[in-house]
């Protein structure tokens, strides 16, 4: 199974696209190090514990003193037991609240720093593969599982070594521990545990940094694509070239049909003179301003001129006007105010030609 995985990865030579990264992110598959989050939470907890240990001692001492002064004759009544339980719950919450809040805050912050804000409904969906025994066996013997197992063994040995050398170094201080009063013993134990905890944290930080780098590397490797995958994704994103070509052909055909039906209604054709043709119409009774009823460039421009000649529609060459209308006015829209004068002059010239032809006939 591992060999197949390696062979598959060997073919992946293309960097992951932004689309592929986003798709994996939607499925909740992101690069994050649980080791880094855990060690930051542990460090924050130890720091909070060190700062709040005296506070916890005072809270517990007050509770013990309160218990000590309870009236024994009434201590076991239902009312007294209820009071004791409530007091115990309150003391417990007050003791652990600082550590709980700091742990929660650091855990959330550490995850957000690695992956940002992420909500993935896909993770909550029920999928048969998750309970498929074959898939489970495959995951069990995957390269990822092997790496996790090696990492776990290495971490255990690493922490064991830290604890051994720390205890060896502190061994000479244990003798005086038994001659201290309760509060001094408490402070000594607090200091000892905090020092041991931070020694372990320093070691775990080294492992966490290595794990973070590995997770980033393996995540990118997982997202790498074969040339065929990159090609298929490009097609899906940009559209199949054959389909796009077919769409353009249909659009050209529809445009030509519209031109053939609209151009015969035009009053004049404005050209530049060969590349652009604009069909203009003005009906004072139904239109606020002259309208572009058809337009085209290159082959379509030639088609417009041919239809115009066939229907004896005047063709006027006006390069600036033709370009301006082509760029700024869509088919079926009125002429903008800044082109009123130029269009009015063309229409006036057209009407004059029509009157002259009519007079001659």
From TrEMBL:
It is a multi-pass membrane protein. It comes from the Bacteria. One of its GO terms (cellular component) is plasma membrane. Pfam families: Bac_export_2 (PF01312). GO terms for biological process: bacterial-type flagellum assembly; protein secretion. Keywords: Bacterial flagellum biogenesis, Bacterial flagellum protein export, Cell membrane, Cell projection, Cilium, Flagellum, Membrane, Protein transport, Transmembrane, Transmembrane helix, Transport. SUPFAM superfamilies: EscU C-terminal domain-like. The chain crosses the membrane at residues 36-57, 99-124, 145-167, 192-214. It is found in: Cell membrane. NCBIfam families: flhB. Belongs to the type III secretion exporter family. Required for formation of the rod structure in the basal body of the flagellar apparatus. Together with FliI and FliH, may constitute the export apparatus of flagellin. This is Flagellar biosynthetic protein FlhB. It comes from Halobacteriovorax marinus (strain ATCC BAA-682 / DSM 15412 / SJ). The gene is flhB.
């Amino acid at each position: 199974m591992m060999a197949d995985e390696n062979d598959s990865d060997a073919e992946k030579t293309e960097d992951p696209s932004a689309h592929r990264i986003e798709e994996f992110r939607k499925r909740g598959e992101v690069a994050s190090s649980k080791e880094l989050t855990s060690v930051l939470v542990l460090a924050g907890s130890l720091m909070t514990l060190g700062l709040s240990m005296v506070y916890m001692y005072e809270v517990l001492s007050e509770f013990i003193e309160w218990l000590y002064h309870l009236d024994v004759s009434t201590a076991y009544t239902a009312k007294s037991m209820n009071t004791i339980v409530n007091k115990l719950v309150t003391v417990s919450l007050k003791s652990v609240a600082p550590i709980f809040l700091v742990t929660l805050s650091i855990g959330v912050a550490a995850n957000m720093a690695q992956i940002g804000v992420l909500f993935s409904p896909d993770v909550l969906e029920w999928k048969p593969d998750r309970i498929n025994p074959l898939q489970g066996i495959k995951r069990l013997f995957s390269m990822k599982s092997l790496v996790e197992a090696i990492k776990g063994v290495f971490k255990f040995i690493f922490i064991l070594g830290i604890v051994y050398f720390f205890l060896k170094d502190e061994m000479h201080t244990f003798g005086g521990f038994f001659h201290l009063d309760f509060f001094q013993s408490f402070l000594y134990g607090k200091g000892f545990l905090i020092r041991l905890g931070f020694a372990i944290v320093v070691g775990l930080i080294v492992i966490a940094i290595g794990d973070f780098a590995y997770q980033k590397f393996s995540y990118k490797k997982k997202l790498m694509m074969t040339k065929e995958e990159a090609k298929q994704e490009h097609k899906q994103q940009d559209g199949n070239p054959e389909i796009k070509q077919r769409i353009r052909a249909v659009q050209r055909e529809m445009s030509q049909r519209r031109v053939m039906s609209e151009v015969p209604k035009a009053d004049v054709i404005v050209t530049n003179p060969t590349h652009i043709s604009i069909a203009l119409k003005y009906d004072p009774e139904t239109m606020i301003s002259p309208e572009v009823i058809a337009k085209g460039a290159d082959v379509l421009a030639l088609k417009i001129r041919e239809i115009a000649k066939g229907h004896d529609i005047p063709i006027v060459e006006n390069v600036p006007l033709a370009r301006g209308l082509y760029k700024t006015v869509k088919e079926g829209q009125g002429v903008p105010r800044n082109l009123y004068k130029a269009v009015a002059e063309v229409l006036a010239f057209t009407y004059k030609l029509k009157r002259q032809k009519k007079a001659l006939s």
